[in-house]
Every structure is written in structure tokens, then in C-alpha cells.
Design brief:
With 98 residues, the protein is an all-alpha fold. It is built from six helices and no strands.
């Protein structure tokens, strides 16, 4: 199985997610304190997430909920089912007996 690499390192990707959360918070005209109260996390958790991308999954879900972004979290690992015969032929057999 080949590994697929992102253009961003994991740390860089986490920082980008934190920066996106900050931009969303500011677009909604929320302070860190207000968002922390809405999400039920500490203000320092939000600061650490926005500046370094470091957060627990539970904290991420709480912040996403407060910012109205739960749909994006729910779609994170959603498996897309093929919709055409051509897509099925391209994917091939990956599991099971031959």
C-alpha cells in the first residue's frame, strides 16, 4: 500500500486548522473568552489551538460545535461510495478472497 503525502507536514496542517478556527472566530466577532465560554473549554486551550494547532479531539469538537462547524468534522473520514460502474472498475478489489 502506497503512502499518500500531503503538501503540508502534520504540524503545519494542525496549525492551518487552528488558523482557520481563528479566522472563523474573528468573522463571527467572538473573543477568545466568549468562544471559550460557548465551547466549555479554557481560554488557554483556544489560544494554544489557534497559535500552535495543539488540541484534543474532544476540544476540537467542542470548538467546532460552538463555531457551527460540526458538519465539517462529521465529514472528515467519510468514505465516498462509487457512483458509476467506471469508478467501481477503477478502484478494484482491495479486501477479501480472490
Amino acid at each position: 500500500m502506497a503512502l499518500i503525502h500531503s503538501l503540508l507536514a502534520p504540524g503545519e496542517l494542525a496549525q492551518q486548522v487552528g488558523a482557520n478556527a481563528r479566522a472563523t472566530r474573528l468573522a463571527q466577532n467572538l473573543s477568545r473568552r466568549t468562544l471559550a465560554q460557548m465551547a466549555g473549554v479554557s481560554e488557554s486551550t483556544i489560544k494554544r489551538f489557534e497559535s500552535h494547532g495543539q488540541i484534543t479531539l474532544e476540544g476540537l469538537v467542542l470548538i467546532a460545535t460552538a463555531l457551527g462547524a460540526t458538519g465539517q468534522i462529521a465529514e472528515l473520514f467519510k468514505h465516498e461510495h462509487p457512483v458509476s460502474l467506471e469508478e467501481i472498475k477503477r478502484t478494484g478489489r482491495t479486501r477479501g478472497r480472490k
